[in-house]
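fwd from M.: "can u put these together and see what the complex looks like"

so here's what she sent:
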Amino acid sequence: MSTTSSIATLEQLAIGYQPKKGKAFSLFNRVIQEQLMPGELVCLLGPNGVGKSTLLRTLAGLHKPLQGKIYIGATRLDKLSASKMAKMVSVVLTERIPTDNLPVYSLVAMGRYPYTGWWGNLSPKDHEHIQCALLATHTDSFADKTIDKLSDGERQKVMIARALAQDTPLILLDEPTAHLDLPNRVEVMRLLHKLALTTGKAILLTTHELDLALQGADKLWLMQSKEGMVSGTPEDLVLSGAFEKAFSSSGFAFDKRSGRFKMHTEGKAPIVLKGTGTGKYWTQRALERQGYEVHSQTEGGMPLIEVFKQNQVYTWHIRLHDQIHTVSNIESLLKTLQTSQPAINSHASST
Amino acid sequence: MQISTEHRVVQTPSSRGRQLLWITGFFVLSLGLFLGDLLLGSVKIPITEALRVLGGVDIENQIWENILLKIRLPKALTAVFAGGALSVAGLQMQTLFRNPLAGPSVLGITAGASLGVALVMLGAGNIASVYSLKHLGLTESWLLAGAAFAGASLVMLVILAVASVIRDNVVLLIVGLMVGNITISLVAVWQYFSNPEEIKDYVLWTFGSVEGVTGDQLIVLGLAVLVGLVLAFLASKPLNMLLLGENYARSLGLGVRQIRFWVILCVSLLAGSVTGFCGPIGFIGIAVPHLTRALLNSSDHRLIIPGACFLGIAIMLACDIIAHVPGSSITLPMNAITALIGSPVVIWVIMKRRKLQQ
């Protein structure tokens, strides 16, 4: 244990729903025992319906835990007043803001509401916080736009700016990368990672982006309905096999070496691939997608593909039944293979 | 957390000035229309004479003085109270329900108030028409205002209970309309047992009118509206928080339950008292908030509450002037005029929404 004290502590926590009648429905048959440390970016991963959002909402005080305790700093969450809580925890939720003509600056300024008086007047210090939040999230260039004029990526960054302006040690984000395109997803993730590092805040987010979580998170919380919660640094979880186990399914498999998921394709045909570097990597990806089992050692009878690179130009040699075909891109490579050596015996007549 | 000044983000201070200019404009407009409402009508009174009467000077033409002080001044004041109250009530409801089509008349609040009024008349054993309310004294005025307030808050509570279960805006609107219909039919049943003369009076009352509220009634109405407006204005910051939705508002430390109760209190006070004395006046409560938001280009309640209040007053006074068709002795039903002005605004809101949702 490090000497720094945790920002949030989850003790023997059980989450779920308390229906009006009958037994409480726990989403989880194990209790959760975790800590959030300063400067940590934690990704909460797990299959749909396992209770990621419920855990997040429980931590935000929007939902009551079924049992157990949550400490924010040294105080129990249920002992915190609403106004104190607002200075400890800020949230970015999935729900859309129901208001149209709200300028970005005013929206971010609402993050300062826990610090302002009855009337909500902003002090120079409040304005400074707002501007810091706008600059940190690169949203300052459209501060006077109204939120209905923003793209999804811009809106998400503005909501993060609002949470930042609230100046809380803990920020909770529910699927901040959902509905964003890849560059925006990466940018939001990078932004959050940088914020955790530079501000010393603890940031907890739920996500479905396994790749991004593996790359960007300092720690992963893996939620599984049966085994309970497993946590640790992404690399440890990969090496121990916990990550693979959490997401094992018949549809795809996790490749520990590359750290990515591969789609299973039935009826694998063996193929040998030779070459080096980037050209080989992408050729292998294409072949695997098509359902070939890629080997690097030559064995008798298997088709052989070699990747060459000369003057920044790639060429592929395909040795099939003692014939050599030369192609200049992966598309024609796959086409050539497809006609003589299909990976999947989709037609009943073929052998 | 230090930023050099040259990196400072512009807060668009120009828009704040422009917004304050709009509000001042609404205020000046309502002042002008107030004067217009005094001068125009079946009898045209010169402005110099009118100002002398208002200044407390006796003028030679006793008829003009009587018309001004006994008819037109109370009427104009009632229009001021009704316009401000209904607009601010509608604004608060639209924010609380996160529904652009919410308003006192749409969600059955005014219907609830009329039911309250009807029940008081029945309970007192006085099967006289609601229209005879115009001859009430001070105690009865309070009783009437109280009953209208109770009826309005009852409906408001029902709608709020439904809203906490059903998130769908359209469903909520339909429920509101139905609750309104139920209360109206209860009044209709009571009407069935009344005599034709009273029914005629009741029908006149449903047309809505700012006339005939004088003396003690005017004081009661004015006090109720003033208290309601002040309460609404004080809730500007919590209402702003609600713009983000309830969950964000809670995460900012807002007690959502308390603010709901507060808004119910305000809306019932404002819409209830106005409906009790003036009859159900439609469309002002739904249309004025939208116009205000669009003109000020803001959702900040610290600006749009005073904005909607003054714009509502101006529009209500304009409606009253139009209803009396200056230069003629005709008086058109107030509800017809407010609907003529309000309906296009509602259509515009729906069209705008559709474009946004695509």
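replying to her w this: The CA atoms of residues 83 and 304 of chain A lie 68 Å apart.
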